[in-house]
Every structure is written in structure tokens, then in C-alpha cells.
Design goal:
By secondary structure, the protein is α+β, with helices and mostly antiparallel strands. The chain contains 7 helices and 6 strands. Helix 1 packs parallel to helix 2 and helix 4 packs across helix 7.
Length: 201
């Protein structure tokens, strides 16, 4: 399994994505290794969400925090989910619950906040990367049906029924990893395409 992207590394990836010059000094605090942005000009900032939002504002890319009050609330909701559930989840059951929650939410959405790419997508991608790397994804294509793609995340201990449950997460993850500047040095999760054949002649 790939190592999880956490703390300072994640914030450095975000800095590069945002086009910031870098050079910030990051540390961690406590047993849970909460990220800290160390500052020479005053008190440091603590927490992934706080520091990430600060970097977004510093880069003057506030649209990544949402445009409307509702979008901002949804972005905040998924950032909180990322910190409390994804960072806190360690068991296979936690992973299944996270994938199930995301899959249901993404059923009719391109991005976590609906139709706009936000900080929530970026940080959720970084948080899930180590999970998705351990899953081989297969895309089934129906012959003669344009746009019919079925993404199946395959993990050794998942049943066929479970694999079918995470189609929306796989679609979203594949889309985000190809969003310009997001993946950077992280390994590409390969989605294998297979044709589904029918008995009809």
C-alpha cells in the first residue's frame, strides 16, 4: 500500500498547485500529527483546513472555497469530513464507510460541491490517494453505446457487489487525478478498460 499523503507534504502539493512560491515552514503537533504553519511574523496556524484555506486566500483563488453561501458550506462540510473521517479512519470498515458515503454523494455530481472544482476535491483526493492506489480499477465499456463507462474499483477483499458500489468515487477520483496540477509526483491510479459483450448478435 502506498504511504498516505499527510500534513506538510499535502500542504506543499497544494502550494505548488496554487502557484505559490513555497518556502513555508511546516511542522506537526501532537499524536495525530496536526499540521502547523510556522510563521516568523506572528503566531503559527494550526490544522489542515485552516492552513489550506489560508494558502487559497494567499494565492487569491477564493473560488476554490466556493462562490455562493451554499457552495462555501458544502466545501466546509467536505473539508471537515476529510479531517474527521478520512484522516481518522484506519480499518477496512472505515474505508468502506468512507467510500460508501462519497459514492452516494457523488451519484449526481461531478465534484464534491456540485459542478465546481474546489479545495474539498483537492484535499479529499490527497486524503484518498493511498486508498485508491491499493485498488485496481477496471472500466467496462458497452460496445455500441457511446459514453457508457462503468468503473469498478477492485480490491482483493471486496465482493463483486461491493465493487459495483463505488463507481461514482472511481469516476470522480480519475477525473480529479487528471485535473491540471493536482496529482504532481503522486502515482497515477490506472483505470483498466474492458469491453462488456452481450449475447445479442
Amino acid at each position: 500500500m502506498a504511504a498516505a499523503v499527510r500534513g506538510a507534504e499535502e500542504l506543499e502539493l497544494l502550494e505548488r498547485l496554487l502557484g505559490l512560491p513555497g518556502g513555508n515552514k511546516y511542522g506537526v503537533q501532537g499524536e495525530r500529527k496536526v499540521p502547523v504553519l510556522q510563521s516568523n511574523s506572528g503566531p503559527g496556524l494550526t490544522g489542515l483546513m485552516t492552513i489550506a484555506a489560508h494558502l487559497v486566500r494567499q494565492a487569491r483563488k477564493d473560488q476554490l472555497l466556493g462562490s455562493t453561501a451554499e457552495e462555501k458550506a458544502v466545501v466546509q462540510q467536505w473539508l471537515e469530513y476529510r479531517v474527521t473521517r478520512v484522516n481518522g479512519g484506519s480499518s477496512k470498515e472505515d474505508t468502506r464507510t468512507i467510500l460508501k458515503d462519497l459514492n452516494m454523494h457523488l451519484e449526481d455530481k461531478v465534484y464534491l460541491a456540485g459542478n465546481i472544482f474546489t479545495l474539498a476535491d483537492i484535499l479529499m483526493y490527497y486524503g484518498l490517494h493511498h486508498i485508491m492506489v491499493s485498488i485496481t480499477c477496471i472500466i467496462f465499456v458497452l460496445p455500441g453505446v457511446t459514453g457508457a463507462l462503468y468503473l469498478f474499483p477492485m480490491q482483493v477483499d471486496l465482493t463483486v457487489q461491493e465493487k459495483e458500489k463505488y463507481l461514482n468515487v472511481s469516476r470522480w477520483f480519475n477525473h480529479i487525478q487528471h485535473y491540471p496540477g493536482v496529482r504532481q509526483h503522486l502515482s497515477d491510479v490506472v483505470f483498466i478498460k474492458n469491453r462488456l459483450y452481450t449475447n445479442a448478435h
